[in-house]
Fold this sequence. Notes:
The chain is an alpha/beta fold. It has 16 helices and 14 strands. Strands 1-2-3-4-5-7-10-11 form an eight-stranded parallel beta barrel, surrounded by five helices. A four-stranded mixed beta sheet has the order 6-8-9-14. Strands 12-13 form a two-stranded antiparallel sheet. 5-hydroxymethyl-3,4-dihydroxypiperidine is lined by residues 14, 17, 163, 298, 355, 402, 409.
Amino acid sequence: MAYPTxxxxxxxxxxxxxxxxxxxxxxxxxxxxxxxxxxxxxxxGHHARQACMHIERWREDVALMKExxxxxxxxxxxxxxxxxxxxxxxxxxxxxxxxxxxxxxLASGITPYVxxxxxxxxxxxxxxxxxxxxxxxxxxxxxxxVVVERLxxxxxxxxxxxxxxxxxxxxxxxxxxxxxxxxxEADVLRIGHHALLAHGRAVQTIRACSDQPAQIGIxxxxxxxxxxxxxxxxxxxxxxxxxxxxxxxxxxSAWWLDPVFKGRYPESGVEPRLKDMPPIGPEDMAIISQPIxxxxxxxxxxxxxxxxxxxxxxxxxxxxxxxxxxxxxxxxPEGLYWASRFLHERYKTPLYITENGxxxxxxxxxxxxxxxPNRIDFLARYLGYAKRACDxxxxxxxxxxxxxxxxxxxxxxxxxxxxxxxxxxxxGERIPKDSYDWYRNTIRTGGNELPPWSQCGFMSDQVELEVxxxxxxxxxxxxxxxxxAGASTRxx
Length: 492
Ligand code: IFM
């Protein structure tokens, strides 16, 4: 079978990671500027003041996207470039930048998919409590309105929040990301609730202010478990693990998506956290569960599970030597299929993969080129499993490779490279990598030259895997809802 002919072939990037700043188009400070300025927070003190200087080189970058043959480019808007203080004064030069970028994309035949929040919260708002302050819902609504009023005559596709798990939990619970806080769980849950409310209000605002019927989604990190075999009991165990909420982290897909698609927090997550749950206003869940048009997810890695002798979920370790990325994430192409399948089963909505890619330590070879065979293999394998999802009738509408170019990888600084295009951070020079040519050919041939998915995986039920996590004690809610137990261990 082939990919659907209207499948969207895309690539993605985010404002803070590529733009940099310039006197002609300044931005207010964000929490990430402050984090970079704090010694010890970012690898070797790297900063994104300059990043890829996309703010100056965006025409060249769009030309490279056009040459690549992209159907769509996923960008994010820097809130502090549009509203330097987060509220009030609008920086027209900032809005002009995004407006010009959108025009250039459209003139190049590339559809813009716009993310409203990809982690660069205006610092002035953090100084007033940031996501912990309930007023953030109004601040985000005002910012959304400003952006939508300016761009929605040309932009149809919107993503409200990127990876709420990461900015809420890494930023405010583990402190590994900006603003670097380690708050008690009650505060973290409150922050998460405000983020979901901000999502819901943004949906309402886009619907009310858009110049054209909009397509709206949210993009959590796809937390998913892969079944060790395709026996029904293992698939059931993986489904349970994917939506588990009772473990000690809130990374679970269900914690963030059940409120959006079902209008309630999952009982299995609420029950062990009753004393810490935030106050939930009478209208809150209706606001959060405004109908949206698609569920996006960003998929990099996955855990693997099987059913134990009593049918309980057993989480397994990958065998020694299992492929790993430069950031030490296991390479798990099967996860892309299982995430698509489980998310569609549970939420019955069209899907996009809004991020997927490989971190490497690429460099320029003596021949002046950048050879990245591992990235080509990684993408081929994951895309093979995306095709399996399409073949089985799962409405997977498109795929956005992360990332169009190397960029500032948050707390890892510039150490790890995800790009199809190599960036020389000293000169700004762009060098398309081998994977750029490969992806161009993949797009041109509609994915028809990809290997069959049956050759793309790494899992095998022949390998004896070690059980790494004992099943947890059952909760009362387990009786009603069989969707429990632990999934990916990433970043937690
Ligand atoms: O670079 C990030 C991106 O900003 C959010 N998703 C994961 C990527 C790789 O870590």
